[in-house]
Design a protein that fits this description.
Layout: H1 4-12, H2 17-36, H3 42-60, H4 69-77, H5 88-93, H6 108-132
Helix pairs in contact: 2-3, 3-4
Length: about 130
């Protein structure tokens, strides 16, 4: 419990944690291989670093806003043409994780807003890219 994506999948079907970890390992391996096959150059490296870090954040769904700081740094130096703007959403919504700093309780809608919003924006962005291609 506490991993947003795993919790969402488990609302639809019972998925053992080990199966989730296996799927996550496959996704991260695929992204890593794609990053290693990128064209040479600093710009592509920065873009893939941001993609890999955003994927890792989404997969583990941290409950503290400071985990998003490296993504902010990577997005700040990403070249404009290679910046994937849906990755900005979790960094902008991360302060919601401090919703109740006294008790540390994070309401469920906060994770839904951060990670669900990211899914919606990513899907929309990918659909636009497909339509344009």
């Amino acid at each position: 419990s506490g991993i947003w994506l795993l919790d969402m999948v488990r609302t639809l079907l019972p998925l053992p944690t080990l199966a989730y970890l296996g799927l996550v390992a496959l996704v991260m391996a695929g992204l890593s291989i794609a990053a290693l096959r990128r064209p040479p150059g600093a710009e592509a490296s920065l873009a893939w670093a941001a993609i890999l870090f955003a994927a890792a954040l989404f997969i583990v769904s941290p409950h503290y806003p400071w985990y998003f700081v490296p993504l902010v740094a990577l997005l700040a130096v990403a070249p404009p043409g290679l910046l994937w703007w849906p990755a900005l959403w979790p960094t902008l919504a991360a302060p919601l994780l401090d919703w109740h700093p006294v008790t540390g309780i994070v309401p469920g809608w906060v994770a839904d807003t951060i990670y669900g919003g990211f899914i919606l924006l990513a899907a929309w962005s990918l659909a636009r890219r497909r339509r344009a291609a």
